[in-house]
Specification:
Length: 283
Amino acid sequence: MQLASSSLYSEGTQDGWEANLALRFARRGSRTSLVERRHRGPLKVQRPFYPEGDVCHLYLLHPPGGLVGGDRLHIKVEVEEGAAAMLTTPGAAKFYRSLGPSAEQHQVLRISDRASLEWLPQENILFPGANALLSTQIDLSATARFIGWEISCLGLPANRQRFESGRADLQLRIDRDGEPLLWDRLRVQGADDLDGSSSLRGMPVVGTLIATGADEETLQLARSAATPDDRTLLGITRIDDLLVARALGQTTDQVRAKLTAIWASIRPALLGRPATPPRIWAT
């Protein structure tokens, strides 16, 4: 089957860019293929890679490199029965200072029975003064498998610029066959939300890794891979078959390294495959 691809570019307006990307993966013969790709505005993908032979590795691209107030990005991914895909990005997503309108990124991921999706984007960087809404919705069929993370950096810690002005609304929702597994939300609206013991504890980087199909052995693998670190707080738990790892840290590199180690430790158990990092991570 040929890849269905369409493109419709619209001009940016005073309210910002509107961009949409829809991807569909299906099993074709011995490997997973990207069978449909529709995009509008500045969202694209590179050609698929197959370093593992059958799993489709794909890189999502946002050529402008960042979002300003009024920009809207919508990403939809569907993985059909029996298919296996890994998605990542070549760099961080940047949310710049806004004088009022929000910059929004909405992601909907749907995984069918006996299919798997690994969602491993690089971090979101929210500049001081940004007004950002980021939402990710994951819809699972009964036997679908998912491993994914979201990493966000509030402010520019390397430049000692805290996220003391601006707004951040980070939303994550996971459903299985229409029933909720996890609904998670973090709202930051000022300096008071950065330092509380029940919020970010003064650490600018927050990360969450989610994996389905986990059992007690998976939990122990994840905990063994998460080595202690004075600059990173890490908690790992299991809710039924859902593994949830949360990290707070001083730098994105530290948090990403912790979550990558967890991913590498649990991937063989959950997906039956050795850890094969995307090539782009080494560049």
